[in-house]
Design a protein that fits this description.
The chain contains 24 helices and four strands. The chain is mostly helical and 499 residues long.
């Protein structure tokens, strides 16, 4: 059979689901097993936290090569694989540009004193006991307002990481609290793209989806909040309870002012008004540059390598902050590492990881492996609980293999829609499960676009924060618990479910 004969395509909202009738389930799993084995060895036996510096990226390419060999054996052409890789990389264009802009924004917000001011005032309000729980609440509110966990992490999240580090709290704990709150807000906000995508795939309605999702999401975030309160009460910090020296160091290095908060407020307001995140971040970066020139002229000149501020040194200073490494020294050695930023160049490692992940996902899609794995899971769904469990497993598998949360929603949404209807289940059951297992777990996979993004933005490896991202890994267990005990399993009015 020719390549065109045994492979069919279904276009769904610019996403293609490819079926290959000649590919067996075991052949589809070979690249997955190979990738997991290689990554496990690479991370746990050789490079550790340094694996994201480049070796994991190459492992993803090796995984793609294994998938390509499987594809060649099943009459899939090199051209088709390359086309799917190109489509996958193309789909991440917006994310890659946002990453670059986040790097630029972090640079200008550092030298302008915006992030230092957040840390300065935050240290006076937040203490180790309530800090982690406060992170959850703050990020949840911002994420609901903006509809974006990415924007929340890139703005408030960065500042909270700095405050946590200054308080002597584990970066993994802080990042886990930030992401727990951010993804709660992302799920529950009608402005979120995944919150709109899930009911669209399941055939449901947006606000019914949000209402139905609250049944599993609110208990999950409540448990998360309680756990972080308990952690806060028992936490052992390395930081000194007396933070006066740190406040003096920050105040001595920067011109601290609450007026600087105008810039992040403007950015958040633009996101709430549905301004595209890339545009909002660009404007936030430029406003940060203006604020730096006005509020921190000495720092801008120093970053430019000049003795005084003039037009040329101002231009060079803000450009350096946006594009390459920049740092501000204080009288506190503990703060010096904190007040540094990598600019756009600092995001290149994350961008490299995403591109390599898209290569692996593209080849897996081209050979039909993603659909074959999902079909196999669907056949195992002989009961209502089995159907929910298969959906969860499919979403998790796609987050690992396709490296993209949107595919983890689109592919299972398409494949399982009829199965839910046949069981007499309303579409809200499917859309809720897609979000509980597809959206939130994407950040737990280092080579997934979400895991790579948040790890790069917050400066915390996924392996360090995964355990503390309680909301994210607890959500799929919560949705399975509801399914097992038939809690809030909405039925179609025209058909009775078959247990």
């Amino acid at each position: 059979m020719s390549d065109q004969d045994n492979i069919s395509e279904i276009k769904i909202d610019d996403q293609k689901i490819i079926e290959n009738t000649e590919l067996s389930i075991w052949e589809a799993l070979i690249p997955v097993f190979a990738l997991v084995a290689m990554l496990f060895y690479n991370v746990f036996f050789v490079f550790g936290d340094d694996a994201l510096s480049g070796s994991n990226q190459f492992i993803l390419l090796l995984g793609a090569a294994v998938a390509a060999i499987v594809g060649f054996r099943n009459k899939v052409s090199y051209k088709r694989m390359l086309e799917e890789v190109a489509e996958n990389v193309k789909s991440t264009t917006g994310a890659l540009l946002i990453l670059l802009m986040v790097g630029a924004l972090a640079g200008t917000w550092l030298i302008s004193g915006i992030i230092p001011s957040m840390i300065y005032y935050g240290l006076q309000i937040l203490n180790p006991t309530i800090f982690l729980a406060a992170c959850v609440i703050i990020c949840a509110i911002i994420s609901i307002a903006t509809g974006s966990s990415w924007t929340t992490a890139a703005t408030v999240g960065i500042a909270l990481i700095g405050i946590g580090e200054t308080l002597g709290i584990s970066l993994g704990m802080t990042a886990g609290a930030v992401l727990s709150g951010s993804y709660f807000g992302d799920k529950m906000s009608p402005l979120s793209d995944t919150t709109n995508l899930a009911p669209a795939m399941a055939g449901g309605e947006l606000f019914e989806h949000i209402k139905y999702m609250a049944y599993t999401t609110i208990p999950t975030i409540t448990i998360t909040f309680i756990v972080f309160i308990i952690i806060g009460l028992t936490i052992q910090t390395t930081g000194s309870p007396d933070i006066s020296d740190k406040l003096i160091a920050i105040d001595g290095a920067f011109n601290i002012s609450p007026w600087l908060f105008i810039v992040p407020v403007v950015v958040i307001a633009m996101i709430v008004k549905k301004t595209p995140p890339l545009i909002a971040l660009l404007i936030g970066t430029l406003l940060g540059a203006v604020a730096a020139i006005i509020a921190q002229p000495d720092i801008v000149a120093k970053v430019a390598g000049a003795d005084s501020l003039n037009f040329t040194s101002a231009y060079k200073g803000v450009m350096n902050a946006m594009t390459v490494d920049s740092a501000v020294e204080t009288s506190s050695a503990e703060l010096n590492d904190l007040f540094s930023a990598g600019g756009m160049r600092g995001m290149l490692g994350t961008i490299w990881l995403i591109i390599c992940a898209m290569v692996f996902g593209g080849v897996m899609d081209a050979i039909g492996a993603l659909t074959r794995i999902t079909d196999a899971l669907l056949k195992m769904a002989t009961s209502i609980f089995g159907l929910f469990a298969s959906t969860v497993a499919s979403c998790l598998a796609l987050n690992v293999t396709a490296s993209d949360q949107y595919l983890a929603i689109v592919v299972p949404g398409k494949m399982f829609k009829k199965a839910y209807e046949d069981k007499g289940l309303a579409p809200e059951n499917l859309s809720r499960t897609l979000e509980d297992s597809g959206t939130v777990t994407s950040v737990l996979v280092p080579w997934n676009t979400c895991g790579a993004y948040h790890s790069g933005v917050l400066g915390v490896p996924v392996i360090d924060y995964a355990f503390y991202a309680i909301f994210n890994w607890l959500s799929p267990f919560m949705t399975l618990t509801f399914a097992a005990f038939h809690i809030k399993i909405k039925q179609l009015t025209t058909k009775t479910a078959i247990a």
